[in-house]
Structures are given as structure tokens and as C-alpha cells.
Amino acid sequence: MGDFVKLASNMADTLDIINELKQLGLNEVEGRAYLFLSQRGTLPIMRLSKLLNLPRTTTYRMCEGMVKKKVLEWVVERQGTRIKSVNVDGLKVLVKEKQQEVERMTQALGKLKTNLPTTIPIKHTQVRYYYGIEGLRQLVWNSMRAKDAIYGYSVYSRDKYTGEKLEEEYWQTCLTNNIKDYVIVNTDALERVRHAYLLGAHKFQKIRVIPENNFYISGDTYIYNNIYAVNFWENDEIFGVEIENSEIVKVQKAIFNYIWERAKPLEKYITK
Hints:
Layout: H1 2-23, H2 28-40, H3 45-52, H4 56-68, E1 72-77, E2 80-85, H5 92-115, E3 126-131, H6 132-143, E4 149-153, H7 159-162, H8 164-176, E5 180-186, H9 190-199, E6 205-210, E7 220-224, E8 227-234, E9 237-244, H10 246-262, E10 264-265
Parallel strand pairs: 4-5, 5-6
Antiparallel strand pairs: 1-2, 3-9, 6-10, 7-8, 8-9
Helix pairs in contact: 1-2, 3-4
């Protein structure tokens, strides 16, 4: 049992090191190659290719690329040409390259802001259609562009499609940008809403509840800026529509406010 625990620990350490190397710009195989060479010193290409379970020619081309990145070095010894890794301090060159890349991107963005015109105002209605899980996620991403508030209706179950990571991003964006999320739900969503409320959704969400027989809610609706968007998921069919029109938004927001006044605050239904 002790040997197994030690092996598992070593495997975890190896994965951590490779993940750190990937953060510096190496891919999975390059990270493994660097780690092998760091642990074993210089190696002939044939030996390294066997450790990586790769063809010799593939390993050679990869090493050539890593030499150009300045993370590996060729070493000529009496036994022949071998390859070795630079020490950890030598990896600073990767950090410097990333910093230079960010600087180039920042300069390019500045030039684009100077040379490109600002967004052309939309003079007519724009209608955009979205399909599948990626389409649903895109609608959620788009709603994070809200300037101050999002108004809408929800069955409060989109997270099973959007995923935990995107929902956390949505929460964090609303909190960071001080976006208020006003949501109306039916009573059948109360259990799901209660769970989110206790996790902290109440910090940016204002939720009211209305019985289904008074106002039926399906899918999700978002009203923000000059956007009115809806999406639905049922029987594996996922689709959404986004309409960009200020007059439609005025009408839909008026309807929302009318329903909001007749819905009851969530706090009447739950206790912390």
C-alpha cells in the first residue's frame, strides 16, 4: 500500500510540473521531454524517443523546436550528439517571450483603437439565432455586456448546459461590474433558486416569484441594453434568439415591470 501511495504521489507531482510547463508555453509532450531530461541529464534522441513513445524523427523535430525556444540544448559528446534541458532559470526566456507578446498585442490594440472607427450605430433591427449548447453559452456571455442591469424570466436550470465554470464567470462579472440581475421565476423553480440563494446569488440577483397559472415561464429571457433575448431547451433541442431593437426592449421591459409588481419577493418563500 505504501509503494502505491508513493507512486500516486509521484504521478501527481509529475502532472503538476507538466501543467506548470504548459503555462509557460510548452505543450504536453514538450513538457514530458523537458521533465525526462531534467531528471536524467543528457540523452540520445533514440533513448528520449523511447521514453516519450514517439518515432525518432518526430522526437528529433520536437527537440529542434525546443532548442529554438532555448529550453533544450544539443551537446556533442564522445558517444555522439545528445540533448539536454536548460536549468529552471533558463526558462525565464519563455516568460520574456510571453511578456513581449503581450506588449505587441497591447500596442496593436492601441493602434486599432486609433485607426479603426468606433462601432457603427445599428439603424435597423438585428436578429441573431443560436443553436445547441454553444449557442446557449454564447447568449449568456453576451448578457454579461449589460451596462447596469439584466431583466428576465428563468426556469433556473441552464447550468446543466452552460456548466459551472461559465456560471461562476457570470456571477463574478455581475459582482465586479455591479450589474443587477432581476429575475422572475415560477414556484416550481423554488428549490433550485433556494440553493443558489444560499450560495450567494442574492448578492447581485433580485428574484421574485409568481405562480405558473398566473404567468408561465419557459427557458430563459434576458432584457438588457437594447437587447431582447430568449433561449429554450427541451427534448435535446436547444435554441435561442437575440433581437437588437430599442423599441422591442421598451415594450418587453414594460411587460417585465408589470409582472414584477405582481410577483412576490423570494424572501417570502425561503429562510436563510
